[in-house]
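Our collaborator T.R. sent over the components below with a one-line note: 'Predict the complex.' Nothing else. No constraints on interfaces, no templates requested, no preferences about which chain binds where. So this is a plain run: every listed entity goes in together, and whatever single assembly comes back becomes the starting point for the next discussion.
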Amino acid sequence: MSQLDTPSSRLGVSSFPEEGKNSVNIAAVSIGDDIDLHERRGVIHTAFRHVINCKVNGSLVSIVTPAIGSGPNNIVVDSVDLTLFTGLEQNICDLNSIDFSNARVFDSRLVIDKYGTSEFLSNLNLLERIVINEASPLSCAFMLDERRGSFFITPFETNVRDCLRNSYSKFIDGSIEEVGLLKGAGFGLTPQGDDLISGTLVAIYVYGLMKQLPTEGLRHEIYNRARTSNEISSSFLLYASLGRVYEKFKDLLDALAHDRARIHDAASRFLGIGETSGADVSTAFILSMKKFYKGGLPW
Amino acid sequence: MVAKGAIRKGEYFDSVTLMLVARDASKIEGVLDAAIVMGTAQNKSILEMSEMLLDEFKNTSDNDLIIAVKAKDEATAVSGLKKTEELLEKSRQKTTDSSEYMPKSIESAFKVLPGANMVIISVAGKYAAEEAMKALQHDLHVMIFSDNVPKDKTLEVKKLGREKGLLVMGPDCGTAIINGAPLGFANVVNRGDIGIVSAAGTGLQEVSSIISNEGEGISQGIGTGGIDMKKEFGGLSFLTGLEALIADPQTKIITLISKPPHPEVLERIGEVLKTNKKPVVAAFLGADPALVKSIGAIPASSLEEAALLSVSLSKGISMEQFNKEIEESENKLKELAKDLAKQLQPEQKYVRGLFQGGTLAYETQVILKDMIGDINSNVPLDPKLRLADSWRSVGHTVVDLGEDEFTVGRPHPQIDFSLRNKRILEEARDKSVAIIYLDVVIGHGTNLNPGEELAPVIAEAKKVGNSLIIVSVTGTDRDPQNKSKIVKMYKDAGAVVLERNASASRLTGYILQKLGGK
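Returned assembly:
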């Protein structure tokens, strides 16, 4: 078949320059509203394919690809592979190598202007079904559907599952001390326990706005109990306690409040964050909101 | 019982890596449990509960990575820990190894290999169409492994491919064999004079493997992705593939594989076949044979029949001889069914099919429907027979474990056997189950140890229940896993093993008929 004939491989050419290493020209698409660009040099904390976390002037700034999306401390750049970013080898983060001229500022604040209770609860039920069906196996979605508990197979995994379930149920039943036992529990750089606390913090913020209740003190106390020396996780918790959210979560909350038809798409995008983070935050948000609607804030 | 561990200060891995490595570590022989977590107070408390908290872990901080392994004895714990650390290191190398130049875009790949004539695209679905358009604009054939490609974009890509006479295999095309090279999930088969166009991935694997096992070979195996046969896509890729095989001097016999195409697509295939002089065998599973005949193809009722018919045509065996051989093998199946049915108790009535391959799950339903009646499924032939809960079987049940509901967040069941293994044991404990039916698809891209993964589970299922376990194995002895070795392991574990899905399905049907089915 002449049109399918494959020429002999000429792979393994060493004379090609390593693409982009010497001439990085990355443009920012958006910049988070909590980033101060007066200070632009810092050190790299952690680097992954889609995220480079930097410490700049004591604050965490994340350079991310569009796949991750905007956030209060995110700089979204128009690259799909951040291993091309300069300074990685030297552990240096220099934001001067990013072109900010066309970047829009991402507003991470939540605006709650219309939440009909019955409609919102019905939308929350839809979200719950989506999370149960689509969440990653080792996420906390087993708290929404017990059958998903069977995804946890090894003895260590089942112990993680049971600890998360016990501590989280006590926490949203009113025991604020359980935050200390929940934080840091689970897998990964932002453990599931921390994501559950974040989901509940956002739920408290949303519920407070809807019912016009003062919740700042409560959110502040939970954050203080939850913060640890894990800078990445603590940064997520801080923003959640301030009612500031990342783009995909903001979009999901907007769909829950205003546009049922968009919920599935928005939820799928949010569930794609981290291996379990999106699902864990969603699970806590659903459980917390339902609890608050039924009996008010338990703390 | 002994626990061993290590601490990595300031090392970070994404959570999926840690989860997968810990899972792999817990499967090391003699290892009872394994954990790789950040050294937070709560994780240390869970490690203590799991009897894996070592003294050296007690002073770790939230930013330290803890690796812990619990094993039956000291030596196993030490070697288990070493292997776990190696697994972790390997996962890092996978993501950071830059010793070989890796193009970051189609454009830079062209610079490396300017004479290339095909591009394989495996990126997130929403980006795949754009990459495919770039490849077509450079006059390259395309195989799109990605799924979830927007329909409108898919149609644009397929239309451009058709206009240019270029193959667009996919989206969601998992299998192809081009010029002898297996692409995606494919088997190592003989080269020969039988060309295949298939809108069904495991269908292509099953047919090409049977042909090769019967001593004949494949010229080209062109996949199209299942959606190609739907009305809105008009069989655009299928028609281009068929025309390529008609024009190909190495191809003497053409084999077509699909679920029943939309009538308009079937008509277009008939139009193309008007110019064809080569014998064409078509397995449009479940389609009316008269319609298939009307377009000038020889109808085959199963993938097995399509493969054997193609082999007979290639070898020059007469249809009379072919029919005689089929009848003889069918009589042997019926005899075997009679013997096996005697092993079952009166309360054992149902088949539970747990499939890795979507096409095979479909074929089994087509065959069993006529033999025993309604089959419940998560991918039913009749929407009324859709399982309310795919995780729970009802009556006769066939489940395709490759469907999205089972694969979100976990590898395809041809790679990760754990979910099916768990369900096999659940079904085995159900006293109403007569037959647990399993397909195993080997070859490139699939699990490299299917014998070790499944044989112990078959043996365990035979211990906890009285069900017959029927296994169909798709593949060849030249596959990395070696089919004969796998078949022997399953037989030794107590399974009835057949080497073709249709035969295994009919054996299942005959046994259930003996038990009083339809």
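Summary for T.R.: Chain A touches chain B through 58 residues (CB under 8 Å).
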